[in-house]
Amino acid sequence: MTCGEMFKSQLNMFIPLILDNLAGVLVAFSVIMILICFFGKEGKLTRKSALPLTIFFIFFLICYVIVVIYEFTTLRKTWNEPYQEGMLLVQYPGAPIGLCRFMFYSCIFLSAMLTFSKKRIRTALFTMLMTIGLIGYVMLETTYSVSFFFDDPRQAMVDMTNIDDYVGRMLSYICVLVSTFICLIIFLALYFGMIKKSRTMYINWKYRVLFILWESLMIGLTLMAFISSDTIYETCIRYELGVIMPIIGFVVPFMFISIISRRYVVEKSKIQENYIAAELDYLNQYKKDQNETRAFRREIKNNLASLSTLYSNNNIEEAGEQLKLLLGNIKAMSPKYITGDEMLDCIVGMKTSKMEEEKIDFIIDGVVDGGLGMKPVDICSIFANAMDNAIEACEKLPEESDKWIKLDMKKTDKFFSVTLSNTMVEEGSIAGKLFGDGERVTTKKDRSLHGFGTQNMKATISKYDGIEKVSAKDGVFTLTILIPRNM
Asked: For position 168, what pLDDT does the model report?
């Protein structure tokens, strides 16, 4: 073997290794996005969290380029002369594969640790395992599917390992290119279809298990065609499997996710419609109360004018009777609980009737003079959902338990502070997790179709640059909302 042939042989090994590393990084990012978008894990893919895997790929790419340049300049002087041992900087490019893999999985672990906010170590380890599984699945399906297009697929698999042979080299290139392309498609679909649009779609465990079983079945069918010597496999191991296996292995899972997605969107739309309908009810009640208040103001003016006339004519007794009637009307029209915000008064008034039915004590302390300075629909989105959660938590308590909800309001120079406290079943219950960053949490049985009320609350609070804080201690859940005042 001449030095020129040796360099070409080395180059034929470097290129698949670079593509292999790229595919691995794309799969690792894809797994992280899958955990966020489909598994409901709490986290956010940022530049900081993507840095370890990005540095890993760039580092090894630079190393490969340096080695190739060095070997080319070294062997160019003796290009047509016989190659001698020790002339290359790296005798076999695949030699440091063990170190490369160790660094790769270490970077996956580090990226996952920087991405996820809760149960980070366990989630990072799970990310590594999923990455190994997905890389293996893509590579296996790609490699065997490509070999199915040859007259002797088993021989084609053997040829792939011989990169010095032209056919083997081409097969190796095709497999690596196809698998890298598939990994790129998966990455782009997840990033632009889910992450970029801030979309999530929680997939239940039964669907996850189904997907794992499907992958296992595909791997089994692929391997069986090579392991078995049955003539049935010999006759259908050619073009048919070469076309069918990629479709079944890669297209069907996407169709599977698409079907779940459609069901999810339809059900989510129904739930969102219910939330919107509830908010419209509050707004209609709010408008009704305002109309009644305007009518009452006109009535007050007329009654005051009548009282003035009676007083001027010294009809003191008749004026007193009319004054008593007027005070009774005022008392009937006045809300039982006053918060300082008309929309919040409406919500509290409607929710207290539910509390009375459930024998829940309601306490209100403080007012926000001048109102919260928010749109009525946004006040409804935050506090109607918050009070619904509080009532639901109290309903789960035993009948003999002390059930109460307290609304505490304050106004400082910079913030409106509203604190809603309620008794709950136990410390550390699901109520304490309702406002976890990123993950949609619900107390409903079908987790995939609930938890949007809390999401809407968080989004609305963020809209006003507000902050929410939660605590669960000694059987009491406390939600504190801080809304900046417009100075």
From this structure: 60
Type and span of the H or E element at 467: strand 467-473
Phi/psi of residue 136, each to 5°? -60, -40
How far is residue 434's CA from residue 420's CA, in Å, rounded to a whole number? 14
Looking at residue 32, what is its pLDDT?
Answer: 94
Residue ranges for the chain with pLDDT beneath 50: 94-95, 231-233, 235, 428-433, 436-450, 487
288: amino acid identity, one letter: K
Grouping H, G, I as helix, E, B as strand and the rest as coil, residue 482 is: strand
Rounded (5°) CA angle 398-399-405: 85
d(CA 333, CA 185): 63
* DSSP-assigned beta bridge partners for residue 484: 415
Burial class (CB in 10 A: 0-12, 13-18, 19+), 231: exposed
Q: Are the CB atoms for 426 and 382 separated by under 8 Å?
A: no
Of the candidates 88, 77, 89, 81, the residue with the CA atom closest to the CA atom of residue 2: 81
pTM of this prediction exceeds 0.85: no
* Nearest alpha carbon to residue 414 among 484, 340, 367, 462: 484
pLDDT tens per residue across span 116-135: 988 899 999 999 999 998 88
Instruction: HSE, CB side, 13 Å, CA atoms: give it for residue 243.
Output: 4
For residue 426, count other CB atoms closer than 10 A to its CB. 12
Task: Give dist(CA 234, CA 152) in Å, integer.
Answer: 9
Question: How wide is the angle at C-alpha 445 spanned by C-alphas 387 and 264, nearest 5°?
Answer: 95
Burial category of 168 from C-beta neighbours within 10 Å (exposed 0-12, middle 13-18, buried 19 and up) = middle
Q: Judge contact between 13 and 94, C-beta under 8 A.
A: yes
What is the rounded distance in angstroms from the CA atom of residue 337 to the CA atom of residue 340? 9
**Cα dist. 376→25, 182, 258, 347, 451 in Å?**
47, 48, 37, 10, 22
Q: φ and ψ at 416, to 5 degrees? A: -95, 130
Integer Cα distance of 412 and 417 in angstroms = 8
Residue 481's contacts (CB-CB under 8 Å, 6 or more residues apart) are 382, 386, 417, 418, 419, 420, 461, 466, 467, 468
**Two tokens at 448?**
């995939």
Q: How confident is the model at residue 329, as a pLDDT?
A: 60
What distance in Å separates the CA atoms of residue 157 and residue 144, rounded to the nearest whole number? Answer: 8
